Amino acid sequence: MANELEKAITVKEAIDNIDSGDLLLPSIQRRFVWNTRQVEFLFDSIMQDYPINTFMFWSVTDANIKNQFRFYDFLRKYIEYKGGNNEERNTNGYKDFKAVIDGQQRLNSLYIGLKGTYAYKKYVYRKKKYQKDERDYPSRKLYLDILNPIVDDEEKKVYDFRFLIHNEHEQQNNRKTKGVVDEEGKRFEVDCFWFEVGEILKFQNEHSVITYLSKNELDIGGFPGETLLKLYKLTNEKPIINFFLEKNQDFDKVLYEFIRTNSGGSILSFADLLMSIITASWESGKSTKGAREEIDELIRQVEDIGFGINQDFVLKTCLVFFSADIRFALKNFQGETIQKIKSEWGKITRSIKSSFELVKSLSFNNHSLRSKNAVIPIIYYIYLKDCSNEINKDNKHVRNKSIIKNYLHLSLLNKLFGGSSDGFLKSIKQVIEKNHESDFPLVQLKEKFKGTNRSFLMDEEKLENILRTSYDSLDGFYVLSLLFPKFNFEFKNPNIDHLYPRSQFENSDFSFLEDEEDIEFYQSHWNTVLNLALLSEEQNKSKNKSELKNWIEKQEKHNLGIRNSLLIPESIDLKFENFKVYIQEREKLLKKIIRENTEQEKTPYNIV
After folding, report:
1. What is the largest CA-CA distance in the chain?
2. Domain GmrSD restriction endonucleases N-terminal spans what residues (predicted)?
3. Same domain for 71 and 115?
């Protein structure tokens, strides 16, 4: 590693090197992940003369390195729904260049702030469906208010950098004011002048800065003049980009320098570092796609099925497949393991996709599948059994699908994959390896973990506790999403609603009840799953605070199946005085549903 600093360069020189392709990103680098606040904070730090830490570049001169490994351009346009995916630069026969080993996020932030754009969702109140286009994800440029500093900011920011939509920026300039909040939380308007930060690169000298200030009638000797002149000097004249330059052409050496450089902080996840190792080894061949692109594509395909997974999930699944030790550790991603992943990638991706297609067909969705790790044993089973092409056919594996559904319900209701689950996954892996020839080995898993804190068994006490999950608990929505698997989460906004409305219990004196135990029953059950349902936003509006009996009777005039769809016992009189009977009967129904989804011997309950 180089042990002396090279001659520092200016921000403008760094930007010019990016534009000319003299500064690229190696494939071992992760994507751009900074949000707008972090970018704005970086520019404020520079303006306040804080150091932005030293960079590390790698001088790439060896033709084999250029031809064998992938390099990428800096991100010019960040679009939230696409993520920070950089375009590949073909370096086969390319000129000598420098690759960024440490400092990519900072450099890319400087580039986006000065020459690029940042597009993220434009929130609209009560809007449900956002399109992936410029209207809903408008491109924003970085601006600086050169008229007023920030006062009394908790983070000690002084300069008001903001990413603004162009037409919004013009609108704010027309108004010449912006809203600010004082120490007491009071909002008021102050004058402002938004300067597009990238325009500073076009100024030739200090005189051109003064000319701009005069033309726009801005105070040259005050904050506007001081601010714009300082921005010009820090961008165009002062060499603030300090860097070490590695000249060694040994890629493995550079890779481990990257790992050492980036593993000291918490911002770069260890999975990102592992991804760097996989990328380096994967791309030693003639693949048309690199490891990062392959994994990105897999994540997108699973997202199209309806489930959100990430890089960590894919890497953990691969470890379960090919490593005796499934922890995220460098020693578990040695060359042999990576080559197995690469050679089996087609089968791995088929197993993952078919597993999520299966999970979807079993009426789970991204909301009810709160622990994606619960799917890894299914993926491993499908991989070993080599049944990815037929597991989702209607006339195939009928009993097996029922067992897998039972397994998922038991895993999720018992929260078996909560907390640290590496040891649990490893033990499940061993059971599946021994029993993958026939149906999914749920019986063997029940026996393996019987009597442990990871037991698959669902006894009466567990079942009752689940049904007494409160409205206020984070688990409440999850339990309801399992009980209402047909709810269309994609197109309907789910509302958790009390069937007997809260107001009835809060406003009632319970004078119609003679027994104190009955009063306590009302008070202890009204706010539990036993009195909750998932309603669409439209249903919830129509119900509002209506008494359940009256609302159901109105709904039944045009929807005879309303009780069935809300899991309300058909024969119960729903007047408030009958709440105890309603709870007792609904508990029997909900228990029946959960049992039939967790007991292997029976056909799963078909919820309409």
Report:
1. 90
2. 11-278
3. yes
